[in-house]
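Quick one - inputs below.
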Amino acid sequence: MSSLQARSFTRPIGNGANHAARLDLLENYLAHHEDILRCAHLSLEWLARYAGVKQSACLAVDAESNMLVGIAAHGIAGDDIELFSWPLSDTYDPLIGALQSSRPVPFRSYRPNGHAAPTPLGRGAFTAIPLGLRGGNVGGRDDLAPGLLLLRAPAITADINWLVMVLGQKIDQVRGRGSLAEEARKLRRERTLFFTIINAVTDPIMLTDTEGRLIVANARAEKLFAASEEESEGRRRAVELNNMLFSAALSRSAVEGNPEARELLLVDPSDGSDLLFEVLSTAVEDPREGTGIVSVLRNITDLRRATEQIEENYQKLRVAEAAVRAERDRLNLIIDSVADPIIVTDATGATVMMNSPAEDLFTVVAGATESASRTVQANDAHFSSFISGLLLGETGPGEIRRGEIGLMNPSSGEPIPVEAIAGKVLTETGELTAVVTILHDRREALERARLYEQLKAASDELQARVQAATAELATQNELLRRQAIELEQASRLKSQFLANMSHEFRTPLNAILGYTHMLLQGVAGDLLPAVKRQLQRIDSNGRHLMTIINEILDITRIEAGKMPMQLSEFNLNELVPEVMTELDPVISRSKLTVAPRLWPQLPTVYSDRQKVKQIIVNLLSNALKFTHEGGIQITVGYSPAERTASVAVADTGIGISPENHEKIFEDFRQVDDSPSRQYGGTGLGLAICRRLATALGGRITLESTMGVGSTFTLAIPVETEQ
Amino acid sequence: MYAEYLQFSGFRVAEARNGNEAVAQAFSLRPDLILMDLSLPGMDGWEATRVLKADERTKHIPVVALTGHALAGASEGARKAGCDSFVTKPCLPDDLVVEVRRMLDTVKKA
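Output:
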């Protein structure tokens, strides 16, 4: 309020003007102004400036309210003079008493009863002068003075008296024209109201000049923009900064000519925190005060914070919504990607959602044929009856209902047997919210079952066939086994028979040969040459028969595996001459040269002497039989590497063609099989020789050239294994 | 036939019709060599040979077995019974004489 008072008098008054001129000037001014308050103010300032009165106040009587009220003050700290008022009825009050005085009253602000009385000048002595007195007039007066001038001054000068008179006249004059009390009270009330209102507003409100200097401000604004000398350095700085910021904002707004609200960031002088304001500035034109700017600052710090919070929350919401949407999209994707139709229905059975395989079955596509639509309706009916069965049925939570439904493919009309699996979705309170149904295509399962049955049938048939075949095979095997046994028995019987027959043949033949031999030896006396010759024929043919029988016996023995082996150590070098001796009669008859070639230091052989001898005899006999001229060489050999001993019989006979080299070792074979063959013999000799050699662990080999001769070689291991 | 030819060849020959007779004759005659047909009636050749070889009076006399059983094991059985030699029937008289001479030579050398 001090600022308002400080700026309330703007008219310059020169220092050098003379006293009378000054008085005239004031009087003139007062005379031309109708506003008592302003006149009072002007008067007090004049007193301060020219009469040396530092502290003064002016009170006036408000006849309407019967109150003495303050209208102006100067040099008084503290309470607003205009809020001062006192009832005129309190005649004991010194101030009220002073109104009736006709001269200045020294004043001590005590009531007559000794209590301190409220005064606008505070404690301490001062002088109360009733207005309207002309200097030094001490005559009594019958009415109350229009007001009081309270002042602290060393003395009541003529100037003071003059002013009291002029001001009293002015008040009387104004009162005469209108009600001073009415006007002043109204004004005061308005002012009071005005300040009460603007102080009650939580937003800072200010009136400034165009440069931003403060003219009026409410309490809030003062906190931001005003600081007295006593306040802290920090607070003053903050206030200074705020003033700067505000001025800058105002000038910006003036430059841009933009009356719209703008934001202004200020500093809270009490704690230094940032405060964000929205500034609404409006220029006001006042004829007396010039152009001012009314600014309303709205604290939007919290608003901004709240806005940011809301923004943040909104972003969060957006994110959450996006997440939910993504989740839902994913779920949809999953549901759609399931090949089996999935249908979600609500508690009434109405379809809430279905995936695309389900849509194929239960929705009519635009442009679908009539039959397709009918199929969809039929499908829908089947499904609805299934669902209503579920809804009506007593299915507990988590329970699954299964059922088979015969659906059809709307596009192809192909029947689709499905297994419907439905589950209820319940809320926490057990209320049914939805039913989820999955339709499982059973065609594949049915097809698989059918294929399985076919496979099983085929498998069974195959098994039966295999069993039959196995049985047949077993029968055949049994038959074969029996046949094999029979064959073996037959073979054994044959061999036994042949062995027995040979034995039976030999016994009488033995007698024939024995007696023939004895006759030839002259047991019965000398014989006629013709008889002797005939006996020799008998002997010769008998021996041949004996050989044949022996050979057959050998073969049958070998075949029956009953050829006895008698192993012993012997020397081939000794065996060869022995054989030659045995065959000497034949050799002599053949007129061939038989030359043995032995192997010196030949190791002894461990084998069956009799069998080896039999082989060599046979080979030499053959050589003698098939050689007509030349010679026969018997060569004994030894191979240390193979540990085999050998006897080779080489002749200069007819030879054997290569194709017959193997044939001659077969049973009952000669090169010439014809009935008209030239050479005798059973053809068993070489067959027996080969079998014997094999039985001894050896072998017989043949080298031969037709017409040149043949070489048969017997090779046997030095040691025969039993 | 063999007895006849052996006599022709210069041997003294006594014949027995069965095993018991053979044993009795061997004890009384004490021959240089006994030709034993293994398949005799009554006491067979093997049994007779075992008896002879068990007796101090006859155990030094060589026994040549004559058999028609040319199968493996026959000769082995004969040797076990105590036969010194083994000739398979049928056998030519000449061959038998050769074997008898060889056995007698062996005994003389010993």
